[in-house]
Structure formats: C-alpha cells, structure tokens
Amino acid sequence: MFLLGKGIPEHITNLPERVLKTPFGQMLRPQIDASMRSITQAEVPQQNRPAAANAANTSNGSLNTSLSSHPHLTVKVPTLEHGSQRPITYAKVPPLDKLMAKLGDASKQTDLAALKSFVEKRSEDPKIALPNLSDVARTFQSDILKLPVELQFAAVDLLRCSMIDPRVSGYFAEEQQPRTVPVLIKHVLNLKECPHNLRLVTLHLACNVFASPLYVKELMESEDSTLSTFIDLITSSLLDASHPTTRVAAASLAFNLAVANYRVRREQGQEGLSEGEQVELAASLLEAVSDEKNEDAAKAVLTAFGYLVYCSDPNGELADVCEAMDAKHTLRKMKVSEGMANEISSLL
C-alpha cells in the first residue's frame, strides 16, 4: 500500500523536477500529505520489481486466473478491450542519400555506411545479412556522441530505421552494459538544449525496440535503470509545449510500455513496471492530458494511461495517486477526445 503513514514515498518525492514544477506536480504533495495525516500503518519493506518472465511470448487471449474477477472486467471500455495492443513503431525510411548528406564527412564512417547499406537492401530482401552490430553499437556510443549536436539526429534516425528489424532490436536487447539505446536516451536527457529533431528521432528509436519480443521481455525483466531512463524520456518529452509531434511520440512510447506491463499483469498476475515507475508514468500522463489541445496527442496519452490503470491493483499506489491527483475529474473535464476520456475515467 501507498499509505504508510510516513509521508510521501521516495519515488513520489523524487518525480522528475519538471513534473513537480507543473500545476499537477505542485498539487500532488499537499493532497497526498493531507490524505495520510490520519493514517498509521506499520512500515513494510520495499518490494523489488517482480520477475516478468516470458512476457512477450504469451498470447493476448490468455488471462491470469487471479484477475478474472477484477472489477474493471465488469466495466465497458471498448477502447481497451478491442483496441490494438500492437506496439507503435516508426518504420518509414527517409531518402537515405539525403540523410547521409546531413552527416557530412561522418557519413564515410565504415559502420554508418554498412548500416545504410543494410537498411537499403532490407527493403528488397528482409533476410539480408546483418552488419557487424557490435561495431555499430560501439560507434553510436562513442563517435556519434562526439559529432556536433545538430548532426546527431541523422545518425540516430539511421539506427531507428534499422531497429525495426527484429534481428537488430533483438541484438540490442541482449547487449551487455552499457546498452546503446539507453546511452543515447541519457545523452538526450543530459543535453542542456536538445534539438527537436534529435529528441524526436530518439523517441522513435525507443518505440522501435518494441518490434522485438525479446527486447520487450528483457526490458520488463530488467533490474537496472533502463526502464527509468525510458520513463524519464517520456516525462520530459510530454512537457514539450511547442511540438505536438514530440508529445505524440512520447505518448506512443508510453503506450508501448503500458501495454507491455498490462500484458504481464493480465497473463501472469505480476507487474513489469514497479509501483514507483507506474506512479511516475501516471503522474506525467495526467499532467500532459490536462492541458492537451492536440487531438492525436490527447488520444495517445489517454490510451497509454488507460492500459496503465486497466486491471491494476485497486488498493495499490497507482490507485492512491490517481485519487490524490483527482484523475477522474481531470479526464471528465477534457474538451478533446471527450468520449474516450469519459470511458477511461470509468476505471477510476
């Protein structure tokens, strides 16, 4: 339970600073504190994320028997019940010669040239031999990060195009530390001023790793900071008021994570995301949707939030935070995607 009688748990107080500075973030602390002052419970040990074994290898149709009587299953939510749970990916390949030209002299780098050749030939032969992915990974973790920041997006976009191949994303799923995709995400997060195009293609790259069931499985089972890194990218990108495309891509990544976790929940009776990670993701999605005017972004955020809460523990920390942030009221007062918002609010 969230209500431990000891104030706000660390993973709430440690929500990304940008979220806490927003109106919902400022509202979160006093509301939760007020709800807890009269409650006293014994302290319980911190729980590790449960192992989400074989999450990506089970079928959509299976249902864990422990959840067969969940109250959400009596609520009509066609968006979630009948909606596609296929990961959102970005497979479009731009004109590669133009993309490479943007890299200048860096386009002559052996591993980038090999990756370009692979992406080109894959459209004709999906079983084309892979480039040396170990060398590609090394190049992206070192040489690419040394390029002028305004050129880096072209290299990341090339990797994004290759990642749609499950063999490529499968390789990067089993990479030893440091892992290439989290390294690139952390690079974006650490930039004082990240160019819009670099952030956008990094979001698209992160979405494309979900093309590999193996990557999803490894991600849901990870005990390192990889999931938190993905969530930090989502959180910071959802707050980009100037670029709806960034918010849509961030919501798409949130959808992929939420669906992966939902499948583990429904099929195994476990959670792929820890409670703290779910709370952080929910807080950022609620903050984003409260002011969203773009229809595509609103729908993407709502669907991600819906799968995050669907069949979740009604007595868990996620439910507590949704109540503290008045999530039901937030959804019901939306002026865009009203039907979907009301539908999702029925779960709260």
Automatic annotation (TrEMBL):
Residues 51-69 have a biased composition (Low complexity). Coiled coil: none annotated. One of its GO terms (biological process) is proteolysis. Residues 81-348 form the PUL domain. The keyword Protease applies. Keywords: Hydrolase, Protease. It comes from the Eukaryota. Residues 1-33 form the PPPDE domain. InterPro entries: ARM-like (IPR011989), ARM-type_fold (IPR016024), PPPDE_dom (IPR008580), PPPDE_sf (IPR042266), PUL_dom (IPR013535). Residues 45-69 are annotated as: Disordered. PROSITE patterns: PPPDE (PS51858), PUL (PS51396). One of its GO terms (molecular function) is peptidase activity. Belongs to the DeSI family. This is PUL domain-containing protein.
